[in-house]
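PROTOCOL LOG
Step 1. Enter all chains and additional molecules of the complex.
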Amino acid sequence: MTADHPWDGNWKARMYERVRERGYDSLTAFAEARPTASLVALAEELGRDDIAGVQIFSGLVAEAERSKQLTRLVRGQCVRELYACLPNGWPSVLDDDARLEVAIALGHWFAYTPETHKGRVDRAGEVLLSSPPPPGWRPLGPDDELLLMLLPDEEA
Amino acid sequence: MGNRWWAVLWLGLFPLRGAAAASPNAGVGTDEGFVQVEATLILDGGAGGRAPASCGRGRSPRWAWGWTLRADALVLTVVLLATGCASVSQVPGRGRSLSYAPRETSSPAWVEAPSDEAPHAGDSLPRAFSGPEQRLLRRQGARDDATAVGVGSMEGAVGGGARSAALTRQAVLDATDEVKGSLRGVEASFTQLAARPPALGGWGLTGVFTRYLDQGSKQVTWLHGALGSATVLTKAASEVGDTDMELGLMRMTGPKLQAAWFGTLLLATWVDFLHLADTVLRHCPMCSVEKLFTDLHRVQGLMAPTLTDLASLDPERVEAATTAMPELMGKLTREFATLQRETRSTMKLGGQVIAAMQAVEMVTMISTMKMSLPRVPPSASATLGMGLLMSSGGVMVGSRMVVSAEWVEMMRRLVQAGVISVPAVSAAVLIQGGQVLMAQAHQDLPKGVREALGDSPEVRGMHETGRAGAGMSDAPKHHVLPQEHREWFEQRGFKGDMDIDQFCVRMEQAHHEAIHGGGNWKLGRIWPGEWNRRVMDALLQAETRAGRRLTRNTILRIVGENMERYYIPMNFVPGRSR
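Step 2. Run joint prediction.
Step 3. Record the structure below.
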C-alpha cells in the first residue's frame, strides 16, 4: 500500500503496515529502537514519500496514551530534539548562539508535547537553563538518569 | 545523429541566408559579421559613452536581451557608411547575441554602465559550511534527496544541498543582475529618445507622441520594484541558514524575476517601435503622422494586457503571460515589419535619399525582434520553421548561436530549483531564437534543448505541486505563519517583501484538513496537531528560553523544520490577508 502523499489515503493503516513489515509490533517499539532519530528520519524510514513526521508523532502519542507511557514518550521526544539541535551535547559555555540552539530544541520539544504534559515540559525547560546539566550531556534514550529526575514517570 | 541533423539544418539554411552567414566560417565565434557590428559599436562608443571593459561587472555570463545595443540610429548609419559595412544588413541577428553570448567581452551596457551596481559578490559567495549551518545541513541532507522540492534531489549527497543552494543563489543573483543591466539600457534609451532635439521642422517624438515615451517610463517603475523585491528575497535567503528554507525563499523570487525579465523584454520591444517612429518622423515627411500615431496606439494595446499581468507579480498571472509571450512577440514582429515595409515604400515613392532609407534599416538591425524579422528586402523569414538545436556551445538555430552554454547552465539551475518554470525558459529561448512568427501558446522546445535547460519529470512535478502547475493552481492558499499573530511577526521583521502574506502555500483541501487536525480519520483529533498552535508553541517557547526576541531567520528556520515534519513543500505563494 503506497500513496502519492503522506496525507493521502489511510495513512494510519499504511504506517502500521510498514512497522509490521520491519518486524515490530508497535510504532513505539520501532521508534525506541531508534531513540535519537528525528521524527522526520523515522518517517523517512517507514515511507520516504508517504509518511510524515507528525504522523509518527501522532501514532506514538496514541500508543503511549493506551499504555499509560506518555511521560516516557515525552522524555523520548526530548532526546530526539536535543540530539538534533545539540549534536555535541549540552554546550560548555552558554553564550548567545549556544543558548539559541538550546532554546530552539526546547521550543520544538514543547510544541511536540501532548497537552497534558505541556506544563511539566515548560518547567523542565526552565530548570535545564537555570541549573544546567554538565557540559556534553547528551541523553541517548528515555531512561537517561538526568531526564528521569527531571520528568519522572507518574503513571501507575 | 546530432551531427547529421546539424548538417541537414545547415544545408537547409544555405539558400535562405546571405553568403556571409552561410559560409563555413560563419559558426559561433568566427562570424565576421559579429566582429563588424562590434567594431561599429565601439566606434559609436566614442560618442555615446561605451562602458570600459572593466566596468565592475566581473562575471562573464551575459544574460540580457541585447536591446542595449540600440544606439542612435543616425549616428550608426553614418558610422556604417563611413566604415563601408554595406554587408552589415545581412549580419545574422547579432543584435541580441552580442550581450547574450557570454564569451564575448563586449558589455551590454554601453549606453550607460554605472559600475556602482556591481553584483553582490559578497552575498553570493558560498558560505563556509560550519557552525550551526553544518548541523542543519547534516539533518536536512537526507530530506533534500527525498522531497521533490529540493535541488538536493539532483545533486545527491549530504552537503550537496547546501552547495547547490549556493549555486542557485548565484544563478538568481546573476539573472537579477542581467535583467537590471537590460533595464538600465532600456531606461537610457527612453532618456535618449526624450532628449533628442526635434529635427528641422519640429519632427521627433514630441507633442502627441510624448505619451508613448511616458508610457514606457511608467513601466520602468514597477520593473525596478520587482527587481528590488527579488534582491531583498535573495538577500534574506542567503542569511536564513537553512537549505530548504533558502530554496523556498529563492523560489519566491521566481515570479518577480520572471515578470521583470519579460517586462523588460516587452519594454525593449516598445523602444524599438519608438526608435522606428522617431526615424519615420525625422526622415519620412511623406509618411502620415496620424497613421503612425494610430499604429503605435495599436501596438501599445497589444502589449498592455501582458504588461498588466506581469506587473501584478501574481505567480499564476505572470506564468500565463510568460507562456503567451512568444505568440505576442510574433504579433509585435509582424506589426514592426509592416510598419517598416510601409515606411520603406512611402520613402521610395518620395525618392528619399539613401541615408534616410538606411536609417530605417538600422532600426531593424538593432531591434530586439531582429531574430524574427524578415530579411531585407522582405522575403521568407530565414528562421521560419528552423529548429533549435543543443550544441556544446549553447542553443543554436542553424549555424547561429541563440543562447550560450553558460546561459543554459544558469537557467538549468533556476529551473531545477523551481525558481523559473520550464515554460518561461522555453518562451525565452523561442523568442531569442526568433521562433515567434508561427508561435503558439505552450509550444515546446525540442527535447534535447529542454533537457539541457533542466527539464525533467521531477521538475515538472515540482511545478505542478508548486506555484505554477495546472493541478495545484486551484488549491486554496494557506498562511504558514498564523495570521492572528501578524503583529508579532511584523515586530520580528516580517514586513514588506517578507510580510506573512508572502508565505502562503497551496494545499489540497483534504491535506489541509488533515494537517489542521480535522479530516475524516479518527486519529486526527487525538493529538492537538493544529498547525498554528504547534508553530506558535515552538516559536514562543523558543523565544522565552532564548531570553530575547527571535530574529526573522530563526523564525524561518523553526517554521521550516515544522513544515518538514508536516511534509509541506516550501513552495511559497503570496496570499491575501484576512
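Step 4. Note key features.
Chain A has a mean pLDDT of 93.
Chain A has eight helices and no strands.
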